[in-house]
Input
Amino acid sequence: MKTSLRILIVILVLWPLIVVDPVFGQSGETTLKRSRGEGLFDCASATTIGRGNISLTTRAIGFIWDNVDTLSHGGKGASLFSNIRGFPEVSFEWGLFDFLSLYGESRIVTFSFAPGYFTGGVKATLPNTKELRLNGAGIALAYRYKPPEGPPGIGSFRTDDFKIGPEGLLIYGSSVEGKALYELDLIRKISWLPIKFMADLGLRLPLNTAYLNYSQYLFSAGIEWTGVESDFFVEYSLEGLVNKNMTPKKFNFTMLGHHSPDAWEIAFSENPMYVTPGARVRYPSGITIFGCVPLLLSTNSGSDMSTRNVDSRVWLPQFPDEQARGITASFEPWYIKWKIVGGITFPLRFRQTSMEMIRNFTLLKNKKSAKRIDIDERLKALESTVPQDSAQIQRQDAQKRLDEINKQREQIQKESK
Output
C-alpha cells in the first residue's frame, strides 16, 4: 500500500512538467504577463514582487534515496519503488509596497507522512525598481519551524532534537535566518544579452541555544538566460556548518548533554551542496511552469570510515588516523544524490510592473529585430540569385534557337544539292 502511495505521489510531483499549452491558453507575446522577482530553485531574487501583487506556487520534489538500511544493504523493502519519495510544497509572496513583500512557504508532508517545515518572512529591496537596474540588492529575514519526527537520520547522528538526514542537518523547533541578496541584470547595459547573475549569502541560527554550534551559513549563486516565454538557468547551493576555518568540524553528543562516546568530523565537502540546472516556461495569463534537477556535489572527505560501519568503535583498530584524532563514529554525506522538481506559479493578483514592461519590450524588440535581419538576408540572397538564374535561362533559350536555325540551314543546303 505504501509503495503504491509513493508512486502516486511521485506522479503528482512530475505532472507539472508535462502540462501542455492548451491548459493555459495560446501564446501571445504582446500580452505576456511577467512577474517581477522570479528567483531560481534555491537562490532568491533581490527584487520583490511589486505592490499589491500576490502569487501562489505549488511545488513538489521527487527522488530515490538509496539509504543504507534498505536498497544498499538489500534489507527489508530493498527495491527501487520502496525508496521513491515525493513531497508537496506550497509558497506565496504578497507585495505590501513596491520595495517590500511578505512570503511564506511550507513542505506540507515529509518522510513517514509527518508534517514538514513552515517558514514565514519578509523581503526588502532597494527602492529603484521603476526601471531595469544593472545592480540590485535586498535582504530577506525569516522565521522557520520544523516539527519533531520526520526524515530518518544518517547512521547514529540523531537525538530527540537533532538529526542529520537525507537532505542535510535538521534541528527541530524554531530557528531564524537572514540573507543578503544580490542581482546583476546585464540586459540593462547590453540590451541583446538577457543574462542575470544572482547570489544569496546568509545565516541560519537555531533559537535553542544548546544547538548554536550547529548554526549554518547559506549560500547560493546562479546564472539565468531570460527569454520571452522561457528561461534557462544553472545554480549552485550550499548549506554549510559554521566553522572558523576550512578544517573539518568536530562534533560529539556530549556537547548536547547526551551520554554517548560517539564523536565525528564533518569536512567542508561533506556539507549538502548541489548544482541545479533548470528551466521556466511562461504563459500569457502569467502562469509559469518550473522544473529543475538538483545534483549532489558533496563527497566523503577526511576519513575512510563509512556509514556501512554500523558500530565504528569495533573497527577503530583499522583506522589509526581517526583513532588518533578521537573520532569514534563514521560519517559520510549519504544525502539524496538527485531530485526532480516541478512547480506551477499562479498570479492571484497581478499588476504589471514598469520594470517587467520594459523587459518585455526589450526582449520583443530584439526578437523582432532578429527576424527582420533574417528576412533581409534572405531577400538579398534571392536578389543575387534571381538575375543569374534568369540570364542562364535566356542563354539556354538562345542556344536552342541557334541550334534549330543551324539544323534548318543544313537541311536547306542538302535539298539545294
